[in-house]
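Hi C.,

You asked whether I'd gotten around to modeling the 821-residue construct. I have! Everything is below, sequence then structure, no commentary in between.
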Amino acid sequence: MVETFLKDLKHSLRMFVHSPGFTITAVAALALGIGANTAIFSIINTVLLRPMPYPDPDRLVIFTLTSPGGSGPGASATKFNIWRERTNVFQDVSAVANGTMNLTGVEKPEQIQAARVSASMFRLFGLAIAHGRSFTDEEDRPHGGHVVVLSDEFWTRRFGRDPSIVGKTISLSGDPYQVVGIGAPENKMEADPPIDLYLPFQIDPNSTDQAHYFTAFARLKPGVTLGMARAQLQLAADEFRRKFAGNIAMGPKDGFSVQPMRDLVVSGVRDLLFVFAAAVSFVLLIACANVANLLLVRATGRRREIAIRAAIGAGRGRIIRQLLTESILLALVGGAFGLGLGVIGIRALLPIYPGSIPRLGPHNAYVSLDTHVLGFTLLVSLVTGVLFGLIPAFQSSRTDLTSVLKESGGRSGTGFRQNKARSLLVITEMALAMILLIGAALLIRTYLALRAVDPGFDRHNVLTMQMSLDSPRFEKTIGLAELIRDGVPRLQALPGVEAASTTCCLPLEGGYGLPFIIAGRPLEGPSHGGGNWRSISAGYFDVFKIPLLRGRAFTERDDGSAPPVVIISQAMAKRFWPKGDPLNDRLIIGKGVGPEFEEPARQIVGIVADSRDNGLNRNPPATMYVPAAQVTDGVTALNRRIGPLTWVVRTRVPPYSLSQPIQTALRAASDGLPVARIRTMDEVVALSTARQDFNMLLLTVFAGAALLLAAIGIYGLMAYSVAQRTQEIGIRMALGAETAEVRRMVVYQGMALALIGVGVGIAAAFGLSRLIASFLFGVKAWDPAVFVIVPVLLSAVALLAVWFPARRATRIDPLDALRYE
């Protein structure tokens, strides 16, 4: 058996060496298809299949908040305390809040990534300590002291791996923190961006804070199922409502739940990865169809060879095994090259992917060629070899010995009825290409629709940068107001600066949501509605050129000593004052959410035009703008925990040309605090649609490859058919057939196959396009324009592909055709 296999292998190698053109063409097509599949599977393996690098990863869960409108992760101190008491179903319940701090007291202050975590978090995620220790339970309680654990990367970068740093203090945002431990280098906390250091969360067990600004995790106890845990959390929700009766942080239809950590982490990219996997599978199938057609052509030329092998005793099974050996060897060689192309593709695509794909690690370090990827490539190669080799093998093995040996050297006419297998393969190629082209066209329409959206602000010549205010100076609003009052004039005094301001959140990047009550209006529920909430300083609307429609904008006089005011967006005015005048009313914002938001009613002093703060693909939300100098001390403290202050500057010159002068001015105003994440608003806008753009680009590349392969497939079939029917066509022309008639015959036969494939593809795409509906904007999954233009385009390409063989057919000389042996 082994000896027979080795003979088949040697014979296959000789055949490929003697047919370099065929071998190179087939290997190239297979390498393209297998390489694309390897690249996408490498990402799927890392994101969806590889276990999370934590102890008992299948029992890790994230707490979620449920409501009629949906569910998602989120936690407040009050909810966390309720969950932490469920020790009968959960263990190591932990809170994690990622944020920023400033490394101070050094020559070059730096804004760093800090995570406030529960002491149990180190056990939950299995984070080892290489030097020192982690937090104690006492240190994780309020007033438990200033201690910190450094990550290995941060320890290496800033302290040169000096172990004596343990026990010493470092300055973080102006406060001394004792370094009690250093994480082990093998720790893989899947966070983006990577965490530099950890501080104890110190949640008050008696807290009444209802703000949702962190995430809670836990591990299910052994023997506890998700259903059991969720049932316990329903009881916990009832307990929460009783304990905080009258609090609007949780309505009667809201509840608590948990989701497996892996499911929630990858939920945003799972469908996208499956779409890409389907797309590259189609490309591979088209490549297989092309190679199968090549093998069928090659088998026609080998009919006499196969007939002779059969005549000297080779059975049908022996011939099929020989031909399958050739196709599998061809696929394995294509797979080897495809593996290399897959590695190159991963390294080329991931760095330019704008979205944050979870679980890939810093700089995509976790994506590797492990045994799963190698096994997948081998399996795909073997299946591919069998897939495209079976049809030629079975068809060739059915060769009639007598008829073949009687044939002369001339080529006999072979119509489409004699090439059903090849015709079916071409129809399949056209159908698969149609599906990919329609998907790509829908994403292209999305790309164009997003470019046509008016964001509601002028993005050009605006520079943005973030500053962490996690220091004692900014614990109260008065400190923040002083910083803004000092910093904005410094910026406006710079040559080339047109306007400057601050904000908690940039347009297109979301923000905070809060309920509101319209003072004096009858109230049926806990609030009249909810909307985006943004704290800004004077000049914000000037920086972004957002038009003021009515009333007035904020000024420097809108500080803590002035009457509270608020400006609302046009969308909010239309929704909640369809016939009234908002400027006559006052808003009570955030009542019942927590003590931080308890404040007197704010007078509505202005209405501004809408801006798409939640993304270009979402309608402008109802938005409330409040002066940063008028927010409560509790909100200022909360903002310090949630995220840094953002400075926005409109310039008359290229924004980056003023980056250094702006940073110098801000350091002078803030006593040396650094800034980070310096970007222009053009970059922010581009990033907001970058994921959709990348999806469109990648699917368009796949569709283009499919279109090219399909065109080659139908061209090859028609060219082969014309070559095989040379004598028949010569006889037709000798009997008086016009060149136009011959051309029509070839074009008709080729386009009949193409149009059948187009029709099948349209029907399949109509159903499959719904799978990418969630990635579309401004276009329906069954968009009429796409379903008309794309078939016409593919049909035109097919017509071009069959035109050249048809033109060649008209140039056949009848005398030469009749003399040809």
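If it helps when you're writing up: The chain has 23 helices and 22 strands.

Thanks,
B.
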